[in-house]
Design goal:
This protein has 327 residues and is of the alpha/beta class. It contains eleven helices and 13 strands. The protein is 43% helix and 19% strand. The strands form three sheets. Strands 1-12-6-5-4-2-3 form a seven-stranded mixed beta sheet, sandwiched between helices.
Length: 327
Amino acid sequence: MQLLRLSAALFLACGLMACGQSSGPSVTNSAPGLAPSQPMASAKKEIGLVMKTLTNPFFVEMERGARRAEAELGIALKVKTAAQETSIEQQIQLVDDLIAAKVAAIVIAPGDSQRLIPSLKKAISVGIQVVNIDNRLDPEALKQADMAPIPFVGVDNDGGAYKAGKFLIEGINTPTEAAFLEGIRSADNAHQRSQGARRALAENRFVKLVASEAANWEINVAYDVTKSIFAKHPQVKLIFAANDMMALGAVKYLQESGKKNVKVVGYDALDEALAEIKSGRMAATVDQQAAEQGYQGVALAVKMLRGAPVPSLTTIDTRLVTAAGIR
């Protein structure tokens, strides 16, 4: 299996595809009415979309959803992405660039839950509307910066990871070692997934978490981290990866090293992960509807530009995907 080649091919293919249609996902708002019912009047408003990277197919899907909102709601979307999910300084510069470009709103999936706050405060101070998607900005850090809460569109990462963790430990009735591949530890979604997964694993007295290492959401880093974990803990039989890219890195190592009977779960429902589940090399993943997060983030920004009240929290549903649910 050539996972790195497949990742690159998927990225290129997704970048050339037209925007898809919504399949009608479930969305929960803390205030009624999210999507505007008609396009913006007069000249098109420009909205900046700042994402972590396009090397992860999850964010390709997120852009696709945002592009669908652009077409339906009559705005102009200016997409900016960093080189890698760890490129926080680059994301800060992208926000500053959008401020200089005088966009009407910024929709951002921040790579870090605290370090982007000063730049976003600057944006708000000059009248730019800001919407936070995917990874939530730290509420305490916002308060310390003397900022009001920023509307957030995302999922219950704790709950989604708990579902996957429960599936991972299902049927384990003999002493079994587990390992956890974490995302970027300063990101709120990584922290929430860690909490949910650990809570699930703790519910089975036969399961012992022997290693928990950050692999920064990246496939190559996860490969190396998994190799290191097995060098220290060769009896690991369960792996929870906080996203699919890391799960795919773990699977690649397991295949190349010839290790059998290791149950791996991920998070994101990437096409490559679904293929690995279908083949039996992964056990499960969590669908957090990346395209819908992108769509709803832009839709929320449009409402704010119209002066309409918006919910502080919009929750996109997650679902556990296993082989039984893949045709």
